[in-house]
Amino acid sequence: MNFRTLVGAAMLALSATALAASPASPDVQVEHAWIRWLPARLPAAGYAVIRNMGDGTLRLTGASSPGYGMVMLHHSRLAHGDSTMEMVDHLDIPAHGSVELAPGGYHLMLSQPTHAIKPGDHVEVTFEFADGAKLQTDFSVRPANASGPGD
Amino acid sequence: MSLRHRWLRLGLAAGALFALAACASHPQWQLDDVQGHLPDLKFQMTNDLGQPVTAASYHGKVTLLYFGYTHCPDVCPLTLVHLHTVLQKMGKAADDVRILFVTVDPTRDTVPVLHQYVTAFDPRVVGLTGSSDAIAQLAKRYRVFYKPAPAGASSSAGYEVTHSSAIYVFDREGRARLLATPGSSNDEILHDLNILVGQQS
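^ inputs. structure came back:
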């Protein structure tokens, strides 16, 4: 990771924290949040690192976005050379730990865009947790062939 | 230089040549060598410009065959980006490579959608579609498993498609040569593609 990415990540983390909607748990941060843009209004995948700085397990139960009609938590699985995508109803983030939503694993599936979204845009995504807390975050939209949040 | 030294030099040179020739005929593949175990590339489909194409249309190119679908926002892009990165690293030599992305979801993957999807990743990706039978035949030929859309599903319906994630690599003559998986590293694929592209048909 180079310095620019680090600064970018730090700024993203700060903005994610700053955007935390009350009464959001102040102990969660979202970093490196990005969406892989796809053409033709196809469903897109969202990736991020969710960091739990609290003393208890944090349960992510869903997400929503004004930019998409539907946001679901998904998990891609590779078994015996076959790949499947399945819906997940929650994802636990351990105390003082983090969970990565990354290509080929857990990710957000964002479908039914409400307006034309293109690479370079920023999309607001709100994470919802089991305790009722919500965290508003900023996802940057990257080209289809991007390999990460800021390459 | 003594005569003995000259002979020694000649011997070493001949030895080196022999070793080179041996290397050329038996490359050290880093992917799985499937030569002789899988049939040659053969299909009759429609490309993402709506034109009828067959395996002969790609004769002279090294081809990578991959089955996927456009309503696949995570794993298919991951593989296509992986291959795009390799082609970028190959530079000019990648002009002789085509990635054939065969949809296993022809109901939703119309030609225009397929075209927009594949070109968003790399200009050397070709989208292929066809009748359910044509796709099933091609998949069967390479023992590719997929669970297609439910019968009667409309193009706007939300459904998941299970599919094999293997990448089949063919030489310029359309002979099946190598098998890559999503676990294969960029360097492994790059190494082997460079050798295959270097083999003139």
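Helices of chain A lie at 3-19. Chain A has one domain: 3-142.
thumbs up if we can close this ticket
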